[in-house]
Amino acid sequence: MSETVENVPATATGPVRRSRDVPMLVDRARAGDPRAVARLITLVESGDEVLPQVAAALAPYAGHAQVVGLTGSPGVGKSTTTNELVRALRARGHRVGVLAIDPSSPFTGGAILGDRVRMQDHATDPGVYIRSMSSRGHLGGLSAATPQAVRVLEGAGCDVVLVETVGVGQAEVEVASLADTTLVLLAPGMGDAIQAVKAGILEIADVFVVNKADRDGADATVRDIQGMIALGERGPGEWRPQVVRSIAARGEGIDDIAAAIDKHRDWLERHGELRRRREARAAAEVEAIALGVLRDRIGSLRDGTELSTLAAKVAEGAIDPYAAAGELLTQLGS
Ligand SMILES: Nc1nc2c(ncn2[C@@H]2O[C@H](COP(=O)(O)OP(=O)(O)OP(=O)(O)O)[C@@H](O)[C@H]2O)c(=O)[nH]1
Ligand SMILES: [Mg+2]
C-alpha cells in the first residue's frame, strides 16, 4: 500500500475499507467516491488477486482520458508543474487524476512527501484525484501497475490523467509508452541537455519544458535542445518536439505548456497516432501481464521437481540449456 496519498485516503473507511467487492467499488468509483478510487488503486498497486476482475469491470471505460506523462531529473520541478497544470485543467472544467510514481525506491522518500506539499492546492477539490504509488510488491513492477491505475482514474471519470515519474533509468521510457503525450522537464545548468541525449530522452519527448527559467542559462538550455531537435531526422508530417520555458514556482509558462499539449494532441488525432500509441500501450500491458503470469508459474516450478530435474541434467551436460528451457516452456503450456 502506498504510504502517501494526498487527497485520496489510502485507508478508506466504511464499507469500502479492505473491500474486495469489485462491482461495488467500481460503482462507487464511477459515482466519484474518492475512497473507492483509493481502494481500487491500492488493489492494483499490491497486485491483488482480484485484479483481473477490476480490469474487466473497468474495460468499458477505457480510452476516455488523455494521459500526459511528466518526467525529468529529481528536483527539476515536475510536481510544481503538475500542480499548476491541474489548476489550468480545472479552469477548463476537466476532471483530473494525478499519479506520482516513485520507481526508484520501495519506500516513500522526501520526494513524495514534497509532492504532498506541492499539490496541496487541490487537496479539497472533488474534481481532482491525487495519488502516489510505489511499485513495491507488484510483480510486473511499474509497467504493469501504472496502466491499471490509469484505468481506475479513467473509470472514475477523469478527463486527463497526469503521470509524474522521476527520470531514472527505464522509468521514463515506461512513462512514455503509457502516455499520449510525454513532457520532459529540464532545468538550466544541470547539464540536462547533454544527459537528455545520452539517456535517449530525445526519442520519447513530445514536449521539452525548460523549467526554472528564472535561473541563469535558460536561454542556453533552450538553444541546446533546439539544436538537438534540428539534428533529428524527421519525415514529412512527423511531430517536431516543442520547446517551452516555464517558471512553475510562479505559475509562469503553464499556459504555453498546456498549449503545447493541445497541439500535440491535435497532431496525434490527425495522424492516427493516438490510436497507434494506445494500441502499442495495450500490447505492452498485455505482454507485462502475460510475463507476470509466466514468471509466477516458473517460480512455482522452481519450488517443484521439474526445474531441478532439468537443472541437474544441464549441469551434468546431459542436455543443453536451450533444450531445457524449451522443455520448461512445454511444461508451462500444459
Ligand atoms: N527557481 C525555481 N524553482 C522552482 C521552479 N519550479 C520548481 N521549483 C522548486 O524546485 C524544487 C523542486 O520542485 P518539485 O516540483 O518538487 O520537483 P520534482 O521534479 O517534482 O522533484 P522530485 O519529485 O523530487 O523529482 C522546489 O523547491 C520547487 O519550489 C522554478 O520555476 N524556479
Ligand atoms: Mg515530484
From TrEMBL:
GO MF, any single term: GTPase activity
Region called Disordered, residue ranges: 1-20
Domain of life: Bacteria
CDD domains per record: MMAA-like
Keywords assigned by UniProt, alphabetized: Chaperone, GTP-binding, Hydrolase, Kinase, Nucleotide-binding, Transferase
A Pfam family assignment: MeaB
Segments forming domain AAA+ ATPase: 64-208
Annotated coiled-coil segments of the chain: none
InterPro entries, sorted: AAA+_ATPase, GTPase/Isobutyryl-CoA_mutase, GTPase_ArgK, P-loop_NTPase
SUPFAM superfamilies membership: P-loop containing nucleoside triphosphate hydrolases
Family per similarity comment: Belongs to the SIMIBI class G3E GTPase family. ArgK/MeaB subfamily.
Record-linked PANTHER family: LAO_AO TRANSPORT SYSTEM ATPASE, LYSINE/ARGININE/ORNITHINE TRANSPORT SYSTEM KINASE
Protein name: LAO/AO transport system kinase
Species for this entry: Micromonospora auratinigra
Classification of source organism: Bacteria, Bacillati, Actinomycetota, Actinomycetes, Micromonosporales
